[in-house]
Specification:
2 copies of one chain form a homodimer. Chain A is α/β, with parallel strands linked by helices. Chain A is built from 15 helices and 16 strands. Chain A has 2 domains: 20-94 and 262-463, Aminopeptidase; 98-257, Glucose Oxidase, domain 1. In chain A, the strands form 2 sheets. Chain A has an 8-stranded mixed β-sheet with strand order 1-10-12-11-13-16-14-15. An 8-stranded mixed β-sheet of chain A has the order 3-2-9-5-6-7-8-4, with helices on both faces.
Chain lengths: 465, 465
Amino acid sequence: MLKTAGCVLCFLSFLLEPCFAQTLNATHESIARKLLEQGLTQPESYTMLSELCVNAPHRLSGYEDAQRAVQLTKKMMTDRGFVNVHLEKIMVPRWVRGKEEAYIVPAPSLKQKQSMRVQKLSVCALGGSIATPESGIDAEVVEVKTLDEARALGSRGKGKIVFFNRAFDPTKLNAFAAYGGAVDQRSRGAIVAAQVGAVAVLVRSMTGRPDDVPHTGAMNYVDTVKKIPAAAVSIEGAELLSASLARGQARVRLTLTCKTLPDVESANVVGEIAGSEKPNEIIVVGGHLDCWDKGQGAHDDGAGCMQAIEVVNLIKKIGIRPKRTIRAVMFMNEENGNRGGRGYPVAAERKGEKHVAALESDRGGFTPRGFTVAGDSSVQKKVLEWKPYFDLLDASRIEPGYGGVDIAPLLDTGVPGFGLYVDSHRYFDYHHSDNDTIDKVNPRELELGAIVEAMICYLISEEGL
Amino acid sequence: MLKTAGCVLCFLSFLLEPCFAQTLNATHESIARKLLEQGLTQPESYTMLSELCVNAPHRLSGYEDAQRAVQLTKKMMTDRGFVNVHLEKIMVPRWVRGKEEAYIVPAPSLKQKQSMRVQKLSVCALGGSIATPESGIDAEVVEVKTLDEARALGSRGKGKIVFFNRAFDPTKLNAFAAYGGAVDQRSRGAIVAAQVGAVAVLVRSMTGRPDDVPHTGAMNYVDTVKKIPAAAVSIEGAELLSASLARGQARVRLTLTCKTLPDVESANVVGEIAGSEKPNEIIVVGGHLDCWDKGQGAHDDGAGCMQAIEVVNLIKKIGIRPKRTIRAVMFMNEENGNRGGRGYPVAAERKGEKHVAALESDRGGFTPRGFTVAGDSSVQKKVLEWKPYFDLLDASRIEPGYGGVDIAPLLDTGVPGFGLYVDSHRYFDYHHSDNDTIDKVNPRELELGAIVEAMICYLISEEGL
């Protein structure tokens, strides 16, 4: 019975998409194998990433390390024989962190109780936050789980520090779904809290793994609402604060000295291998060169940048002369403005260029599983035909989905996009924190991502989309 | 053209196996979702693994920690309400490590050259090795890449330390294939070297990641060939030694005090949830409780053991009363004898029991990708029909393949077997070394493995094979 039904379904589904292994193009298959062999026997992505992480760990836009990273990646491309290596200037915001401290202090009524001593909280300013007064803010804390709960505080929010404490949903298999379900607290918490008269916000770090390391990230203000300081608190700190509140009222003393300085000049870094038949048709492969000023931005997104350079490098090393130009782009300022991503499509350099596709790796340098495709049905169909080549690379999960923040403005002009899809379970253990260091990156996992991206670039270059 | 060919192929392939998503059984689907929710919201595998790693890190057969691990896991099962919790006694070998030291010492002709100072090598005795004389062995070193090269040494091997230095093949996508391609040096190197008169062997550690940590593992002797001492050398040590040899002759002074003591009593640890309809039909899910006396045996194979306990625990917690009995087994002595695996099928306790399947997790507590199936074509076909449930768990790569060392003797009696298949890139970074500690385990990856195993057990319990 099932078999009969299956037969009809199978026949029908065939009309929509292939449901069986197709005959491989021998050339394409040999390229997949060559990329694998070259990448795994003489990988360069991890060595480059180590160099970036050690020499320019705090690559937040406008920081010295960001400028150092621009020069370093330009040199990496030049040293590897890329052509058209150049900087594309953009202006970037410059927010600097400064000092950050928080303590749980008992409410006056509880000061005599021994159990309510002053306790330090591990916090860090959220990116873009204003400072507290120099002497800090000392205020009662009120805990909420959602923006709606914060709104519902009404006048009870006045003068308080609103503490957003909604955890990642652990049942989300994809860690990005858990992040997506929690990040509104960080991105919009300060706006909503200010609307009910709060004086600051503390936000539970955007991670599912309990430790005492706070995770920073971008937060937003709007012109119509008073700006209040915002900091992330570690998971252990959040649990401690929540337990203190459960035992009675608790105050927090929060001091932040972060500030926003005038915009400064920075750049996207570009280099490529020129197409042999259609040099003006460009395939962009990129990541973002900036990162938060915590850890070393190893996974986010040094990994994606070094993979982009390695894509062009691998293609050169195995002797492919691609039909179309394959271009590595280090986008600047993804974390707090996306000026690089927005500037790229409208740069003077774009004259006469036609972009046929853009790839991004910004989900960490973990084992690649496949990629998400942002494009119309004809693009989706075309890419699915390539699945067998990605079976060879053990990364053939191909699904419609997001490309990435950096390439989003380019995709908005109608260019198809690709986001490298990786094993996601570890990403938010490290993301935007002191945990995001080179020792958390496995060299093979990183290189395999570059190999998968190189194969996508090669196929697009040869066959178009 | 391709479409027409595809149509025929598709139609034919349909007769062999389903090539499309089938209708899900609503109950089975809901169980998959419940296991996911229970496991990810209230995971116990990582907490249990931490307890095991901290309290009984060096669980080599016959060591005190192994006995402690037996009692600890018995208690874990009892505390969680398992039934028929008991120990099944076996005798195990008792090899103990002792002191291990090696130095590169310059050959007499080079002693005056400053570049050839005495240099320490990071080594560890291979499991089962005999000791060197108390004063150590001081001998010239000859480097080979293969057993054949060692054989070809002939009389040039006499009195030498043979240094097996063949690296993992980095082009193998599956790390187990790289291991399989190199491990003959460790397992049989001492036999082959002794046949050409060598006095000891040094073996490049079985890992692809360069660091200074040696990786131990089992080695073999045969009665007809003289026993000589055998040690693993770290990758950095191997590179150093090879470079020293390239600059001229080099000697190594090796001291090992390991020894084999008389067999002692130990046990497999067993506990279960009884089947409601066919209690005498058993599904075994296991791992091996012993590990090498390096690190904490976190991935190898504390992970597999704790996952096995968590399987039964999850099934109990979501309120399933399975038709068949699901039994967790902690096998003792996989690493150097497999007495537990061999003892299990022939134990007195097996009277009246019928085993319908056996599962093992012994590839590390990494992200599960699916499982390998050891069974005839009807078993393979049946299991493939369950693929949609494993799609829900993002672990639906189902392939014919190996079950595991512990369950192999049971499988030899005709029982179908399953080996949890995981992302393998990191495993040999840690395997059999001081690197294999609890901090290398990601709690979600570990728990997901237990969830996948629980789903297999549930389906077998309900539907048989």
